[in-house]
Every structure is written in C-alpha cells, then in structure tokens.
Amino acid sequence: MKSQLLTELKKTWIPNFELFKSSEALKVIPDLLNELLSQEIADFERILEENAENLTFDELFIEGELGYLRNILNFLNSTEKLPEIRKIIQDFRSKYEDFSNQIDYSRRYYEVLSDFSKRDNLNADQIRILELEIKYFKQRGIDLDEKTQEQIKEINKKISEISEKIQNNVTDEQSHFLINFPDNESFLSLPKDILTMARKTSNEEKVLTFDANPSGLQAILKYCDDPEIRKTIYLQLNQWASKGGYSNKNLIFEFLSLRQNRAQLLGYENFAHQSLENKMASSPAEVKKLIWEIAEKAKLKAKNELELLKSTYNLTEINPRDLAYYARKYKEEFYSFDEEELRQYFEFDHVLDWLFEFVKNFLGVEMRKIKKSEWPSAIFEYEVYFNDTQIAFFVLDPFYRAGKRQWAWADILREKDSEFLPLVINVENFSENRDGKTLLYKRDVETLFHEFGHALHAMLADSRYAQLNGFNVERDFVELPSQLMENWVKDQEALKSLAKHSETWEQIPFHMLQTQENLQTRMMGNLVLRQCELALVDMSIYDSELPTSSEELENSILEISNRYSLFPRGQEYQLYCSFLHIFWGWYGAGYYSYMRAELLEADVFQKIKENWIFSPQIWNLYRDKILAQGCRKPARELFFEFMWRDPDSKALMKKYWLIDN
Questions:
Q1: pTM of the full predicted structure?
Q2: Residue 372: in which H helix or E strand, if any?
Q3: Beta-sheet strands, E only, within 387-455
C-alpha cells in the first residue's frame, strides 16, 4: 500500500482521494510521513553541505512529496469526519514543526541564499524569490541569539497546536449539533427544501430537526415568525465553541499570549505590527483610520435603516437577531422582492456553466471536466487550459455535509514546479438537493464566484515558480481578484444571461433586474458596519495590551464590539470563540483585508465598467497586469500598473451609497 500511495503522489494529475481514506492507507500513512520527512531532512542537509557555487536555483528549495501528502490529509480532515486522519495529523505535527523550524532558523541556509542572490545570471523571478526569502529570514529572527531563537521555535510549535485545537472544537460542536422544533405555522414561510430537509432529519412526526447546516439556520433567522426561536438560533450562531468541552476561551487567550510574546521577541511592539510587515497597510493606526472612515458613514446609513424598519413595523427597538427577519419582510412588501423566487433563477449547474463560459471568453481559461465523483457528496474535477495549453488542475467541493468545516475557501493542494501543474481547490457549503435541481441563493452564487476568483489568481500566475503564485501577494491585496468576481452576480448586464429560470430557462424578467438594482444598497449599512466591527475587533485585540485572563479578554472584546456596533451586546455574545479567520491561517490582525480589498475591487470594477464589463481588452489587461503577475511585484505596483494611479476610496463609498453618487 505504501508504494501505491507513493505512486499516487508522483502522478501528475488529480489524486484518488478515496485511496488516502482507505483503512489500508490509514495504517501506513504515519510511516510514509516519517519516511518522506527523513528524505527531506537528508535533501536539506545536502544543500547545506554543498558548495553554493555548485548549486542551481532549483536545487535551493526542497520539492518533495511530503508537503503534497500533508495538504491532501488536511483537505480530507477539513471536508470529512475522519478521526483517523485527524490523529495522524496531530501525531505528526510536532516532527514537521521541528523540521520547519530547522529550515527557518538555519544560519547556513540563510548564507547560501544570500550568496546565491549575488549572482549576476539570475532572472527577475529568481531575484524576487531570493529577496523575499531573505527578508522572511530576517523577520523570523535569523540574527537573534540562539536562546531567543529556541524560544521562538517552541512558540511556533505551540501556536500550531493550539490553532488546530481551536478549529477542531468549532467543527466538532457543529458536527454533533441537532436542534428540534415543533413543525407548526411559525415555519410555514421557510423555503420548501429547507423544511423538507428538516422533516427528513427528524425521527418524529410533526417535529423539525435542524443540524448545523448554515443554510437552514440562516433561513430560520430570515423566515421564522416566532421571535423566541429566532433568538435561540441567533444565540447558537454566536456561541459556537464557547462552553463545555468545546470551549475555545482559554485556548484563544493562550494563543493571543503566544503571538504577542513571539512578536516582542522579534522586536515588534505587538503582533499587529508584525502582521502588517508584509501587507500594503503600513501600521495599525492606518488600518483603523481607514476602517473607521468607512464605519462612520456606514453607521449613519445603518441608523436610518433601523429607524425605517422600526417605524414600518411599529417596533420600539430591533434586536440583531430580528434584523434579517424584518429586512426580508421589508424587501418583500415594498420591493416585491422574493428571495425564493429569485433563487429559481440560479440553478447550480447552469450557474457553474455560465461562470466557466465567462472565464473562457474573457480570460482565455477553459475548464474541461474530468468527472463528478461521489465521496460522499458531489466533487467536480477539471483540467484547466489557457490558450489550449494546460496550466492547472481544479477540484470543486461545493456542498455541505456534516463534519465539513462551515466556511468557503480556496487552497493549493499541489504547488507548481518543473514536473507538476498546480492542483487548486474550491470548497463551499451549499445545500444540495439530491431529489432534483439544486438552487442557489444569490449570496451562494457570489460565494461561488468569489472562491473561483482566488482559484484564477493561483492558476493564472505566469511564473514557473510556486513562490510567486497569486496566493502569496500581500494579504490585504489577495482578496481583490475574489471580491471583484462577485460583481458579475450583481451587474444587470451580467444577470441577463446568468440568471435563467430553472424550469422554463427564461431570462430573469426586467422587473426583477430593476429590483436587484434598487436593493443593491438597501439595508447594506448594517452589513458594511458589521464588517467594520469585525475588522476593528481583530485589529484591536492584536494592537492592545494583552489582557491578564481569558475573562478580561472576553470583556475587552465585548467592549470593542459595543463601541462600534449599533446593537448593545451582553455576555451571551461569544462570536469570538468561533472567529476562526483571526485564530487560524493568515488573517490575524488582517481581517480588515476584506474591506481593504473591497475598496480596491470597487475602484478596479469602476474602470472595467467604464470600458464595458464584457470587453476582452480590459479583461486581457486585468489578467496580464494582476492575475498573471502573482506576487512578482509589490501589490502597490501591480495596482498602479493596472489603474495608473493609487487606490481611491470614493468608488467603495459610492457603491454602498455612503456618499452621494
């Protein structure tokens, strides 16, 4: 079996994921991981022993199967309920972290790269890679004394361990979650497929059972007429991993302490300053100024929206748990907007076909389907071509299932190198209708387009070197291509061909297009303000003096939320316990990146629209100046070379009518 797995890892196409989940494979994968690690350690030691003058550029970096296998295991662990794989990952983590630390703090390796960078026969991509690698060495503390480096290494290992525990607590609670309600008239307005699913899940007659599927829980907030039921669901959505055996409170406090300690050992004031070292924003103060500028304008709009709802429905106040319910009612009653009717125009297969036809016509990217597998839900696999030359493989895992992490993401399972094309994935959590056509909400379509924007950024990067792919640009620029793609779900001209009725295949009627246009900025003040609040909570906890306990941390986060939110919140508000963006991955002290990228994409989309949204010329320019460049240049330069000026926030303000158009 071990040789079979190795053969699978050496194949140049999409791996057989089922093979890695088999009981035979799970028995030998721990040994295989150790063997691959030993091989990479030996390869690294050879680099250190070799005279730098005898090395080629490609020999400077280790390109083995270990990283690929780990990525496959992490993908399966994130999308399936597989405790055996989780244990394998946990047991191997410490060994892998030790090796990563060995590379990151190798003085000899740093000297090899520094010496190599002085050669006069390097091309521009090689120069850029070496510049970045040497900079990262310095930022990690290569010049610090050995004792301090050892402290940092131990912190790195602990951060990795705690981050994984935080993720697992959220996933585990959600995978075990079930809640029952009487099947009564309070639920009559819920979408039919959501009700059907809840009835099927239940073991009793006249009882509705909901699992953690976000589509079902969000539908309750929007459609259920019983305010107490809405309250129950709202509290649950804001209390994941906050109590009992799943509680993340102490873990998060320890995680923040470790990040703060590491940042100060490296010479930074705090983790926020360290995080911004490799972003477009220069300081936490600059970020807060930008977000607060948007938040102040959004708050005025949000207050007006709340007053409108209160006066319309004769309410003395509106709780955050009721906002989605009354906003939906208002849109239905005053704009004849029916979200379920609109949903009929977004049938999954048609939407996906439209998206792929769009990128073929305007970016030259062709998606050729290989197969649709069932393990246990539909997984779509593609070969990706640009101008008839294959450039990547793509895997789409779009549908919710229990045990799957509940957000959407894009990732690279296998990096590009001299032998392999990149293998890129998109994962979402849409509700699949297995008894008929799967219909998407408009927000689902936006998510599908968003994640595919990330995929394009990874697949179209022109450099042959993985280090320069689009995922490695500054974090407050990386969301530009993804958020830009969402505009083709909102623009009237695009919707005329994208939105087709799932039964009649008729084009979406003009009155619905007009309604969409009119609603583009309605009830958006609270949404924008909410994003600002989350961004400011994130930046504030990393840019403030560290609390002395998890209780003090909780109170501090609550105080920050209440400072920026229109809704006063009490101790029951525990959203931070499942705010995985900032306690896992790259978004700590960087959640503002979504708002910053939205500013950039609004600016870019305005230019595209001025040239016509289906103009091949403007799309070619965008592909060549942004997507194909990856991180060959700093993000500011990439933006300037496309726009011929620096970013302007006015386009974003106008987009949401925060200033007059």
A1: 0.93
A2: strand 365-374
A3: 389-399, 409-414, 423-430
